[in-house]
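pasting for the record
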Amino acid sequence: MLVLGYLLLAPKSFFLGPLALLLLLSHPSRPREWVWIGIALAAAFVMLRLPATLTDRTVRGAGMFFTGAFVMMSLLGVRSLFHRTALATLLAGTATFAWFRVLGIGWRELTDAVAEYSWAIWRSQLPALPEVPPEGIPIAAGETARLAGELAMAMRASADLFPALLALAAMAGGWLAWHWYHRVAEHPIGRPPAPWRTFRFSDHLIWLVIVTGALVALGLDGAGGALARNLLLVGLALYAGRGLAVIQTALIPAPGMLALLLSVIAVLLLPLAGMVCALTGIADTWLDLRRRMVPPEGASP
């Protein structure tokens, strides 16, 4: 389900690229391995034949850089999956930034392209929307005009956070690719992934949230403000993942139906659930909540 959801909702290259390259380096011999290699090649062929906007080219370029960096980290023996995905994302981001500098593409050009791309998607679903996104929400107007104003505001906010969203998609794609690779490959490279409930990282990362949160609260403008907002989103998302790992550990002894019910509620109340997970992950920095939990016999903490 996670693989299907990622392929439907996220950039495919961050998952299919590392998966296919890792399978090719593992001397594939089983049909299931070649099937996934074929899926990746077919997806790459289709993407390269489609017309590409600046947004598309950015995603494709970042996906190629991430694939190379992630596989290189895997071959070099970086054992922690979190460190591997984080380093690969950092290298891919640096390479993409350098590529933009060589081409002379600036931050405003990228955000404008992302906003235009997002608005075109919304207009394909809601043809009543205007061709150009409106500035602000009209006080007295029809339902369509108000909806257009709200969508335009959300679109500009997401365009400003595009690098962070792309980085999170890359880290999620690398994590999922490594899990799926160890399920598909006959002779996989490296150690199998640990359960998500063991996910943690250095407690010093809390300073990233504190410093960037302070800069955002102070209303820093320009490139520094954009960088702070993107880093804050990445930090909060990582702590939300850590909080989810804590909650999963706490639910080990719980009945399966309770865990299923909580999962459904979390999907329906996603923003609230994300906030709860992030606060739990931040609290785990100081309280080490999982150490205080006694898992059932036979289950690792």
